Amino acid sequence: MNVLVIYSHTYHSQSYAGKAILEVLEAQPGITVRKLEELYPDNRPIDIAAEQAALVAADVIVFQHPLFWFATPALMKRYMDEVLQYGFAYGDDSFKLAGKKFVHSYTTGAAAEVYTGGLHQNAEAALIATAAFCRMEYAGAFPLYGQLAMANPNVAAEAKAHAERLVEYLKTL
After folding, report:
1. What is the SS3 assignment for 25?
2. Contacts of 120 (CB under 8 A, 6+ apart)
3. 45, 51, 84, 161 from 168: Cα distances, Å
4. How many Cβ atoms are within 10 Å of 45's Cβ, its own excluded?
5. Tens of pLDDT, residue by residue, the chain (173 residues)
6. What pTM, to 2 d.p., does this model score?
7. Phi and psi (nearest 5°) for 138?
8. What is the DSSP letter of 78?
């Protein structure tokens, strides 16, 4: 199975969780990680053809990012705006991602208790809708809460365990 991870983190160099997650994912055969901030620094134009080709080649697509105010980082949103365009991801029977499995993996600084009462659903809604609109099969959210290093001394270990669980889950798809 060919898994494509689209990773975005505005402050990756400062992220213990992001680094630990990528370390696990990048070591796996069959998993390709595209780090948006490395590929497109300083507002560089996105290579739409390359990104679309990577998506088409994948069986499973994972969006991995920290949650910023119940949304993706800005570059991931820009990626979605530019890459998932009409004639490719939707419209006129051009659903090139139809049938692909989509997993939403994200980290939060706040603890899980903050997201009780359905608040976590707000964080996931836009990507659930995006997957449905592009006719992808939404294979679930994979959140990791409480990853603020100032408040949690175990961020790297928890993030590594999260990534290992994610890899095991991906093997079941």
Report:
1. helix
2. 141, 143
3. 34, 25, 28, 11
4. 7
5. 899 999 999 877 778 888 999 999 999 999 999 999 999 999 999 999 999 999 999 999 999 999 888 789 999 999 999 999 999 999 988 899 999 999 999 998 777 888 777 777 777 899 999 999 999 999 999 998 878 776 777 788 989 999 999 999 999 99
6. 0.94
7. -70, 115
8. H
For 106-133, letters b (16+ CB in 10 Å) and e give bbbbeeeeebeeeebeebbeebeebbee
Tokens of 63: 């969006």
Crossing angle of helices 48-57 and 74-83, in 10° steps, is: 80
Tokens representing residue 76 in the block: 């991931």
Distances in Å between the Cα of 100 and the Cα atoms of 21, 64, 97, 111, 155 are 22, 16, 6, 31, 31
DSSP 72: -
Find, among 71, 155, 167, the residue nearest to 109 by Cα. 155
Query: Contact, 37 vs 77, CB < 8 A?
Result: no
Q: How far apart are CA 132 and CA 72, in angstroms?
A: 17
